[in-house]
Amino acid sequence: MAIRSVEVIFAPPAPHMVGDGFRVHHFFPDGVIHDKQRMSPFFMLDYASPFTFTPTDTPRGVGVHPHRGFETVTIAYQGKIAHHDSAGNQGVIAAGDVQWMTAGSGVLHKEYHEKEFAEQGGLFQMVQLWVNLPKAYKMTAPRYQELTKAAMARYPIEGGEVEIIAGDYKGKKGPASTFSPVNLFNLHLQPGATCELDFPAHYNTSLLVIKGSVLINDQAASADQWVLMKNDGESFHVKASEESIVLVLSGEPLGEPIAAYGPFLMNSWSEIEQAVVDFNQGKFGVLADH
Ligand code: MN
Fold first, then answer.
1. What is the pTM of this model?
2. Which of 105, 118, 129, 281 has its CA 20 to 30 A from that of 6?
């Protein structure tokens, strides 16, 4: 197997607010990279780096909005997030939990800080990924997977573990059901621990350093940096310089056209126009604002 090498290590771009609750660094698309296909099947990576919110009786977040054609994956590291959607699903996720919402043919949802967390205030840190759906599944029925920390698969390594959300690591399979090959892991590493990773060379692969600092092969990356890997080989390793958490994304590119407009992610502009028409006609269901 050939070594997969680092392409670029990006510092987090200046944050912006999504609603009033998510202070995010927008890595892609059109953040630090501009090719919408570069990380396919992942379409978007927004990262809320650690930020302390003051107490409030009115939870901060994003009000009712639609999605169609992809999945929103929210990973909580600190703080709590509440979710409600027009398919009738709701949930609260806390540190280590993941919600995996398949918008498919269309949902309305809202995303807020959980009420008690909002009232107490405190440190908040999370990731939101948009995972594109293959053409054949863009109009699949909406689905909601709440994946608790306890439900994650774990593969112990010396000085740490690989926490598998989706895909598999050395035969251990994560709990998330996906529509195309997607690997999503959290590496939990003590100082000096090394994790070997290998994925097919054509799988688009990157890492987000959530905590600590690591060497990827021999290149240093620290907290809040995003590491884009080349597609020049299969295997690489991550070695912790201090206690670290690293989110690993690797997936098979879909190789299909992308038409992206706001909250809709389709294959053609006529499908985007149809999404707008369907949304305006109320076909995404009903969800109250509060
Ligand atoms: Mn959303």
1. 0.98
2. 129
